[in-house]
Amino acid sequence: MSPQILPRWLRPTDRILEGAYPSGKPPFDPFPTVTEMTNAYLCPRAIYHYLLHGEDGAFTPHTTAEGWKAGDTFHKFVDHLKTSIAQGSLNLGSQKDDTGKLYQIWSLFMDFAANLDKREIIWSEYVKPWAENNLNDLVAMRPGHRTLFEITVSSEHIGFATEGGGNRTYPLTGRIDEIDIDNKKIIERTIKQTATCKDFQVWLLWKTLTAIPRDRYPEAWNDVDFSEFELWVETPQENFPVTKVNPDFERRAHDCYAWIHNLTFDPLAVWEAYTESFRICTLENKNADCGLSWMCFLHKQQFPLGRNEMRRKFKDMYRALLWDKMWSADLLQYKFVRRNEEELEEWGLVCRGRVIPGTSNDNAFQVTLPSAQANLISAKATDESSNFLIVFGNMSIGQRLKATLENRGQDVFSITIEDNDGFAILGDPLIATVGEDLLVFEERPTYLITGIQRNVHRLEYRGIKDELRAKEDSKIQLIEGVFGRKRIKKARS
């Protein structure tokens, strides 16, 4: 049975936000991402594997299409196509018939995906049917059309209705594929043929966007009311409208938050997740939308014999690693939405800079940073382990892009956007926000913790049926030596 609505969602106090060197069980609930919510929506075991084992393959299974980077290419090209139209570099209206318009899009795609071996297949299977389905909307776009891509939104208090007319608030953060301001649409895309889970995802993102205080919106959005926007999920073959007033989504959202809370803190919730998942997904009738079902039904081989002891030892470690991520990433997210940019800068969490006019060149431009932070940023920029994000907007709503920084002397830095792939960086309405042009902050390396979780968890699935082969396998023998009865002997030199 699904968990009940939580009595409350515990948020960190100001004392915790300002504390140093935290550790142990966090005295606050997580700051969930929309990805975590959709995993919980899909299946309790999917969010269990995501949180405790770092397994993120529920929606991105290792299929042939993913091996071609089809999904990533599809998303980025749509961004590039619409940006080219909005900037005036592509005019589909110059062609009289649909064939000519599609040829223009095909030509743009071939240049965009020039380095991909399977670009012809990606075009015919995904991009072409999407372009044919949305051709009228693309032709109707004009230079200056206001549409933004990959916008991160975050709010600490998002209201979800309860039975009886009540309301419960939770935090949430996520990234929106597209906000089309002029057509009043919020859009999520997928290369799958159905809108499964994506409809819930775009609804959550819209709830988050409308929960952000208006004083956090860019000045150019003063006349925008996102409560009036339509919600859409686009697939290559079809566009699906999503209803905003949706009691089922409200109920499922409470369930998802409860699963995230319970699996984070209560070991007994794991058994509940197993029980619930086997009600909706069986060996004979697997969930076709889940890329992790193999973990649920994989037959484990006889060796290593120490597997059960290894799993018992690992259980506590998984949750401890999750708590470490919460102290690092989730607590930081609470700080981002609760404090303004001036306070964040005083705490050394962000640095506010200004873009130097006339320095933009493709995916690079120059900025000036405050002298007080310039030396520290310069030192970190030379460290290969440091990862920077720049933000156009603010920490509640903005475009976050991975970047490398290089000191050009004194307070001037050159910023190069990583994996930009052609959609607009500068000149969009987010630049017109109150304060500075952009924010710079160092990304917390929680991906290292996630990697440890995932790699250790994969050891549990390593196995060999044949005893002779098992004796020759170094990893199997290591597991037997650490967790089994095998005696480890020092090799003779």
Radius of gyration: 25 Å
| Sheet with most strands: strand arrangement | 6-7-10-9-8-11
Cα separation of the termini: 59 Å
The total count of strands amounts to 11
Average pLDDT, to the nearest integer? 87
Query: What is the name of the CATH class of the largest domain?
Result: Alpha Beta
How much of the sequence lies in strands comes to 15-25%
Topology overview:
Elements: H1 14-17, H2 34-42, H3 44-53, H4 64-67, H5 70-86, H6 98-112, H7 119-133, H8 135-140, E1 147-161, E2 167-180, E3 185-189, H9 198-211, E4 230-234, E5 239-242, H10 247-265, H11 268-280, H12 293-297, H13 307-338, H14 341-346, E6 351-355, E7 364-368, H15 371-381, E8 388-393, E9 397-409, E10 412-417, E11 438-442, H16 446-459, H17 467-472, H18 474-483
Parallel strand pairs: 3-4
Antiparallel strand pairs: 1-2, 1-9, 2-3, 4-5, 6-7, 6-11, 7-10, 8-9, 8-11, 9-10
Helix pairs in contact: 2-3, 2-9, 2-10, 3-10, 6-7, 10-11, 13-16
Could you walk me through the main structural features you see in this protein, from its secondary elements to its overall organization?
With 493 residues, this protein is an alpha+beta fold. It has two domains: 263 residues, Lambda Exonuclease, Chain A, CATH 3.90.320; 120 residues, Thrombin, subunit H. The protein is 43% helix and 17% strand. The chain is built from 18 helices and eleven strands. It has a six-stranded antiparallel β-barrel. Helix 2 packs across helix 3 and helix 3 crosses helix 10. About 1% of the residues have low confidence.
